[in-house]
Specification:
It holds the Pfam family Ketoacyl-synt_C. The relative contact order is 0.19. α3 packs across α4, α7 crosses α13 and α10 crosses α11. The protein is an alpha/beta fold. 33% of the residues lie in helices and 18% in strands. It folds into 2 domains: 370 residues, Thiolase/Chalcone synthase (Peroxisomal Thiolase, Chain A, domain 1); 37 residues, no CATH class. It contains 13 helices and 15 strands.
Length: 427
Amino acid sequence: MTATTDSQGRPLVAVTGIGLVTSLGQGRDENWAALTAGRSGIHRIQRFPIEGLRTSIAGTVDFVEAEPFCAPVLSERFAELAADEAVAQAGLGRKGDFPGALFVAVPPVELDWPQRREIAEASGQSGDVTYADLLAGARTGRFAAFHELFLFGTVADRLADRFGTVGVPISLSTACSSGATAIQLGVEAIRRGETEAALCIGTDGSVNPESLIRFSLLSALSTSSNDDPEGAVKPFAKNRDGFIMGEGAGALVLESAESARARGATILGYVLGAGEKGDGFHRTRSSPDGRPIIDAIRDAIADAGLAPDDIDYVNAHGTGTPENDKMEALGLMAVLGERMKSVPISSNKSMIGHTLTAAGAIEAALSLMTILNGRLPPTINYAVPDPAIPLDVVPNEARDAQVSTVLSNSFGFGGQNTCLVIAAEPR
């Protein structure tokens, strides 16, 4: 009889649905075809004026419309599209009655500049208008809709209504590890027996002038490739100089393996383990000894009941910033040792950019696609190897490979480190 519990006696967590939206396209198949062809979704920004911005390129999803055009509405729209695809593949909740919990990773919410300007102009105030003034203005009169629109949790509430999920929807924002954390929470809820299924989503539609300015001030963005958008993101290369913002959503339907098998669902893979470790060293930088990253990787593998030698592919966080790539390589070498030099690792961000809150969920979905298709996505723009990072980064071209167990890494500003172990079969 096929096992329904893991080595620790907990319910096995199966994946029965995958949904994707990125700048490469809508849906699993379109994204996978573009990704394995090494095609970049990074391009010159068209949706707002870019004069004066140090970085004028991004992986925006220009084929999706939203009204009003702002981060919460766009994030909600991406999440809907990804979740629609995942739920349909799973064959659950097609009538708006999803039989489980909802966990949604969403970007931090604050009034976008167009709405701020509209409120400030209508207020008639002279002098500086504070953010508190704007919030007060958004609670009254014709701007009352802004107050609800920009409340943290609104996106999850609307998605819960649309898909008919059970219980209180959970919204979370743990920087660039958020999407992976949403999946981790779904796994833990199923393991505890609180739910038989979970809809886990990471979404982000926050490419706007203010975000670009803020990341620029942190010296996090690449500024050297405005004239070569497709070549901008260079993870693990010696000439890497920062990330490029992207947007989109990834969604997974998780179920207890027992429940999935009982209803005859097709199981696409398993989330065997999750590891999370906070790092209070700095608001943007990693601890120099790499300890929190090392612990998150090690804990994810141990939680899966595996050993480091069981990992045969790494879906990297791989942002293309000088420090992040160095620290990720350090962490992997510390846990996997010299064997890491021969374990393939690639960064989807080289093609779709850094989707921030959505990244962990998108990359978990692509990790499953790697297992299902037996093909490793490349790390494009790898022309100048970095001798300090002696890893097999699957440079520039996809590669066929039998993959059974993937480590998917997500490391965020503020020391939010979350890693997932995803496998073809339980161990």
